[in-house]
Amino acid sequence: MLNFSFHNPTKIHFGEGQIEAIKKEIPSNARVLVVYGGGSIKNNGIFDQVAAALSEHEWFEFSGIEPNPTYDTLVKALAVIKEHKVDYLLAVGGGSVIDGSKFIAAAALFEGDDPWDIIAKRARVNAALPLGVVLTLPATGSETNAGAVVTRNGNKLPFASKLVRPAFAILDPSVTLTLSDRQVSNGVVDAFVHTVEQYLTYSVNAKVQDRFCEGLLQTLIEDGPKALAADTREDLEVRGNLMWSATMALNGLIGAGVPQDWATHMIGHELTGSYNIDHARTLSVLLPSVLRNRRVNKRDKLLQYAQRVWHITQGDDDARIEQAIVKTEQFFKAMQAPTSLKDVDLGASDIDEILKKLEQHGMTALGEKRDVTLDISREILEAAL
Amino acid sequence: MLNFSFHNPTKIHFGEGQIEAIKKEIPSNARVLVVYGGGSIKNNGIFDQVAAALSEHEWFEFSGIEPNPTYDTLVKALAVIKEHKVDYLLAVGGGSVIDGSKFIAAAALFEGDDPWDIIAKRARVNAALPLGVVLTLPATGSETNAGAVVTRNGNKLPFASKLVRPAFAILDPSVTLTLSDRQVSNGVVDAFVHTVEQYLTYSVNAKVQDRFCEGLLQTLIEDGPKALAADTREDLEVRGNLMWSATMALNGLIGAGVPQDWATHMIGHELTGSYNIDHARTLSVLLPSVLRNRRVNKRDKLLQYAQRVWHITQGDDDARIEQAIVKTEQFFKAMQAPTSLKDVDLGASDIDEILKKLEQHGMTALGEKRDVTLDISREILEAAL
């Protein structure tokens, strides 16, 4: 195991009916801005539950955060915050709303001239508004971590600060019942690939982390398809297991003390930035190709994955690794997710553009060994056609 | 999965050389009391590392915390705290030193007349000194949780407050290399039984928690005996895996959203209180008997344990459960731990006294279904002879 520091102070309230916990988590004298997306929460009852929980608070609304939240939208919140003297943010949504709220939290108290510097110049975040979360789409883990991704002019860029980590997160699995199949699929695939990015690297004999990863992957494999199947889609136990898996997949725990990859994510971000493809769908397209390309580097862990997650015991090492990757593709297909560039209407002629973007963003040495060069990214993309 | 709230804000610094992180974790103007046990840290270099890390702090010492820390010892620290205007505690030791420091932290700022009321009358803890930890014996999980056990006149009694949860914990596996075999054995058995208490109950289809438990149990089973074997006892990877398992076994995570048992612990506390038997050794004596006695209640989870942890696939249900319990006993024996009352020099004539103590402490309805009456505790003890 590698040395590490781990600190995740977000308080979690998990289960049906927990939205009412907002009431006691946000100081009664706070002036709250409820931040949300396209308004679906007004149709499915979540907004009403939040409003009921905030009945004794002074609160305001800011809506319209889009998937892959853009800088141009987010900065509009700053005027609302100033006008109403807001001092607490409550994000009600999935990863995009939460990520966007994190940027708003930091931008609202940013002392420099241009809040975009937080991302573009990695300007230090010295203060941020406190942030609470009601999670509606389990996927990104953003509800308890310190990171966020913001898009500007087709560039999808990350920032992180412990000051924007949510103070609390409400995880009520029943609110996920109204998600579309596509949203459910995206969430499960995202959590799966988050886990893989921290698991399928090289071994440092971190047995707890390995087994926690394998437990999350097995849970997603077992329960992911159930959330799409007619007879089990309303099953709250299934929804609960998926929600908790997605949070645990990116709260820092399984990645503590182990190498991490993230090549699939970094290449995927360019597919989203340039072609507006759902984040999770870029991951299901790319991951199998990344694993095949990096199978020598990742050999020991791929064999462990084949055995422990997929129970593959027949064939020589190469055959078992290939079987495990095929099983991974079959799982993505069962989740109704694409597994090739063709599936998302991209072709060979798009690869140069993707590589240009990777170069532009400095993504020229990816992966746990920093050896995924642009040439290797090209191989990965070509094999994903 | 059951509804739950989870909050563990302790910051962890894990790995060799991390003791120096104390320097930045404790405010530079703090007046620190270093609390420790019998003085072994002065012989193995840990004290020197702590002293070096505190070279720019004002600090004092309080030593002599015994295993199963007693009220009479702990209250002596209060005079030292008053004399030197101490405002930060640093516990350097195992579960007993940490638990004792938690009580000192609460007692130092207790507003009532008698700090024993914190335990005896469950008096509310409104303030506590901040506490940091350098863990030397991985076992109890006390380094990141909010609970403690204190002994007075042979009565071993618990208290808990979020105000005594350590602000930070240093987990350096290399400091465990000087532990005796008995200490290593105790730590592994304690972590194993903590996990079992939160795992072998009845199923609520909490797949993540179940698999995390199974991962911890498998890690302890694989690496526990290696920490006692001549050729692997110095292996820092082994020590690291055991240390991280013990923390994860009782930091609140695997017990969130699931039923919990703790009958083995509660009966075990009486064996320690009345006969001064090491805490972990009471657990290895009692757990197999508890599992056999409760095998109907725990049937589904025992079958899952047999299959996933011990890979037992032959025989009917009862036979597989019995094999899993036998494997558990064999594991305890491999850890040089006792598995019967006879092994710890107790006999049938002691059972009445143990039951009297259980009754005296209100332990008359134990277990995840509160159905372990005194009569069932008697059955459990008789079967453990």
Give a description of the structure.
Two copies of one chain form a homodimer. The first copy, chain A, is of the alpha/beta class and 385 residues long. Chain A folds into two domains: 11-174, Rossmann fold (3-Layer(aba) Sandwich), CATH 3.40.50; 180-383, Dehydroquinate synthase-like - alpha domain (Dehydroquinate synthase-like, alpha domain). Chain A is built from 15 helices and eight strands. Chain A has helices spanning 22-25, 46-53, 71-74, 76-84, 95-108, 117-120, 181-199, 207-223, 236-249, 263-275, 279-293, 299-308, 317-334, 351-360, 374-383, and strands at residues 4-14, 31-35, 58-62, 88-93, 131-135, 147-152, 155-160, 168-171. In chain A, the strands form two sheets. In chain A, strands 1-8-5-4-2-3 form a six-stranded parallel beta sheet, with helices on one face. In chain A, strands 6-7 form a two-stranded antiparallel ribbon. In chain A, strand 6 and strand 7 (155-160) form a beta hairpin. In chain A, helix 11 (279-293) packs antiparallel against helix 13. The mean pLDDT of chain A is 97. Strand 1 of chain A pairs antiparallel with strand 1 of chain B.
